[in-house]
User: Fold these one by one.
Assistant:
Number 1:
Amino acid sequence: MRCLLVFVILVCLPGIFNYQGRNDVVPKIVIDNVNYFLHNTEKEALHWFCLVLGICSTNVSFAQKQPQLHVKYGWGQLEFDWQSQSQRQEYISNRKYIPGISAPIDVDVYYSPDGNQYNKIFVTIPRFQEGVPIGLGTVTDNKSDGNPIITPYPNWSWHLNSEQCNLNRIVSVYRIKIDECGRLWVLDNGRLVDTIICPPQILVFDLKTNKLLSSYEIPRSQYEKRSIFVTPIVDVRNQCRDTFVYAADCQANALVVYDYNNGNSWRVTDKTFYPYPDYGTYNILGHSFDLMDGILGMDLEPLNRGDRKLFYQAMSSPTLNWVYTSDLKNQSRFASDSGSSPQIFHTYRARRDTQSAAMAIDKDGISYSGLMSEVQLICWNTQAPEYGPKFWEVVANNKETLQFISGIKVINNYKKNYQELWAVTSRFQRVADGSIDVNDVNFRILVEKVDDITFSTRCKKRGPSGPPGGGYGLFRP
């Protein structure tokens, strides 16, 4: 479309410049408006051509169909790759497996950089209720009653006898992250239903071999009895060994910063990590439930002159915040007091009208997240001077498939050389109030090409230069 507009300008310029008596004015008009349409949507630019040049076509459609993420997988209830039918029956008898209870929360996808290895699609299944047999698995092509079967990762032995706290264990996982080095980072919160039965830990797997590379138990001094670690953000720099993990604790309202190279961690706290009481009640399509979750949704902007911002939000809140990772990585700041540096945390002054959970940021610095009550997916350019409805755009709107976006990732598809957006959605409100119907599709994994989602949106356009939001809602001019 933009090529067409440029062609029209080139064809029309000679005649315009030779227009009698207007040679001193028209070039300025043309230049100004060329700049305009190059920085605005095709629809707006074509409208300008119709008004100014009289070039209109009834064959040009201004309506842009909003892309919808297509459903890759759907479940009425989760079904697993049991070692035997007797194992399944034993789990049901002992209430270790209650059909219809398990709910997927996050997704991540491994595309081998060489394009030859079989792809893996991971799902997390936190064990916050009784009857969830595993905490992490991969989706297979096999089905049971129409439900894709999930096989435990890396195998069943990691999920058996969790209460024994074996060295090779996975208890409960909300979210995971696959990095550019082909490693899977698993944040295991160690919690079974309401109790931490094993120390929370960070596991790292080599996805080429599915072997454990390292494990790190978070020190007891860095979490509380109420702690629930829910989101790991992995920050890789020059070499794969130079890696930091920012782990969100949504109930103790804290971050744990893990230095992978040096094998140590420290705790960071701030009031921007806390939930807002007025946002503790969720209402999704007529179903209500209460959830007071603090810091949860997080992701990193692209590296910029050796530093980058970590964007984050408390789930039960209306605000978006950010902090420089260089400040979080400065252990000495927090050595004596985890809450010693309120000045490094910043909050945009604009607010949402509803809650938002996970977020993901693509290579161009465009952020994606869901709006709970509106049941929508939005994009927002992290380079914009502010946050809020004036700066974001709704890119998907489907009351059926976009309910409760709990997990979202931007994935590099190396073979096709583009980025994809993957998301987990669910009728979590029905899980919360016990009204789930396993005969309906309750859980979905969605996917769409990133460029198709943001095409012709304001998210693709950089906002005017200006300072970002200031600390604690104060805009810094």
Number 2:
Amino acid sequence: MKLSIFTSALTLALFAPFTAGFGLQHPRKVLPNPTRPTHYSTSLRAPKTSLSATTSIGIIGGGTVGGGIISILTSRSSLFTTLTGSEIKVSRLAVRDLSKSRDFTTPQGCVVTDDLNDVINDPEIDTVVEVMGGTTLAKDAVFAALKNGKNVVTANKAMIAAYLPDLESLLSELAESAKTSTKPPPTLRYEAAVCGGIPIISSMKGDYVGDEVEMITGIINGCTNYMLTNMDKEGLSYDESLKGASDLGYAEADPTLDVGGFDARSKLKILMRLAFGISVPESSISCEGITELTKEDFEYAAMLGGTVKLLAVAKRVSDTKIAAFVSPAYVGNDDVLASIAGATNAVEVVSKNLGSTTYSGQGAGRYPTANSCINDIVRTARGDRDTMPFNAPAGVGDEKEAAFVEDFKSKFYIRLRYKDQNGITKDCGSLCEKHGIGIYSILQNPIKNRNDAAFVITTDRVELSRVEAFVREVEGKEWTLGETFFMPILRDEAF
């Protein structure tokens, strides 16, 4: 894994929730910079020399991540001046609520405002840093900043995933226009958008240019990994585990984006664009969350010699086809991903030249996320060009143009709940035969309640569509209780 040059200088905080938000307040007010506390050391400010220009940045979002960025920039300003040849100065900070107290000191000379247009339209600002979250308002801010010729650094995976084709189109137009200008086109950097502090974006953009990525497998949502770890190791129920995640701030008040798998799907879409050169509508990627998992599933997983993780997976299933899913999946205990515990993130990249490479670390929180933003800010201030932030589209300079396919093959774990009666095993066997599903094994704990029992079928390698058809039909049987749960089995020639 590539280590950031700043990582050793940071005391990484415990995994904290990403809470930066933004909303306009009216009438617009602008506050002067508050008085610095007496303990603040001005000796850490970047030295002003004849060789030192100024890079002016504006930050949109004064929450968890925005505060972390300001704290790091302030405490290490001399280093950043040395690295970039210019003093990095936070000129403006746009926040949702001017009256809210904050746990960081606003830099000297920084104007705090509740109007993001003050940041976007300031002619002195070189780079806009967007860390407010959301999609619509954030999209408007990022697009307006780029059109105004400003470089953009963002941590907003939802916005990038939702508007990726539009971003690519705009950046292409700006690059074309810059050919007749003395000023280079603006850049877009988004290292913090996927897996917070793990440098997976820069690795995917720069370390596989002579390689061919075959598969990406990621644990890329810290909230759900924390919950599943507790369900596995502590024997907690889903509700108990969710409460624990909420108490620690890992889960939002409305945890749907996390537990439904949608947060992971947005990140996977971005990684697929970098790895395979394709832009896929998020709705086309099969997405199942963890809400239907029970303690029984972890008991059965243990019987099989593994555990359950929420995985985001994309694989080249042929030279011209890419398949993907977000879903709970069975993972054997000997797999590196089985050991990723708590709120930690991990991404395994399998490629033709390098084989398997795994990146792991903190996927969210103030300082991990801010650290990635800082790296992008420094690269931008240093003048590093990034003319193709999403890599070349599939088929450009490569005869293997890839296309997305929604169906894929895997071994599957299928858990059925039922009211006990004769002939159930025979019915399931007949339905599996009808839909072309080979049964690999059948697992069942001792029955405690014949009116509400469960058993598990594991299958041979088969198409997802066949399993879905089997589930639809088995749920129509009079002995079936509720919805039937199924998930892929990772490895062992699966997927």
Number 3:
Amino acid sequence: MHSGIAGIDHIIVAVRDLERARDAWVRLGFIPTPRGRHLGHPTANYCIMFGQDYIELLGSAAADDPGPRLGPFLAKRQGPMQLAFAPNGSAVEARAALLASGLNPAEIRPLGRELAGPEGPVVPRFSLIDLPPEETPGLNCFVCSHLTPELMRRPEWLDHPNGVIGIKGVHILVAETAPLLPAYDQLFGIQHVTTTDAVAAIQAGPHRLLFSTPDDFMTMHPGIDLDPAFPLPGIVAIDLAIASGSRTAAFLQGAEIPFRELAEGTLVVPASEACGTLLFLSPG
């Protein structure tokens, strides 16, 4: 894409108790990676890997120190906290493209994470580019370039019993959609931003970002419970691709996980089952 962003790399779900969160997502039918620990930061994680993207369950490595980024968010709620975009090329190339588009990305910063591997600890490494909040309104975003991608994906981490195969997009609740449009026109190109009376839809490579007000979200999805105190703006739901609707429904029924089936066949798992994250599951 013209700004150097290829789509969603991963979604960070902030949780108050990392081990309980892992157990909850295992019950949902996901196979997480071993626990990782961010070098130089008070955070740890489990990742749920797919072929091209993933979900990161992020928690405090020490119960008494959630850190300056995680603590304020968890004081309000659990759930999706940040979106990491994948670069189209290297981090250097992505930053140059962002600058050429008239945007103001931060300098590239390194990140390492110690991960327990089958042959012993390994350290996946990344290059990150923070994006100014005014240039991604409604979202807390950065660009994440993988320097050691071979350490992040092993076959046994990709075959999830629930049949989920990847991320399709996210749903973001905002007070108004119209003020968002100029920033996303500039970031992704006006041809990738569409609006209706109810939503603003941004196409980020193969992924879709859907912005709406809480009222419009409930109108589009009648019968889905939404916390009336949900803090705006925020990511309320993750849209996941599944290989087979019948397979996923059978797994959820067997695990005694409550879900709704919408008219078009999408399965919806309530946020109470996934650490504050609504999950939309549909073939893709």
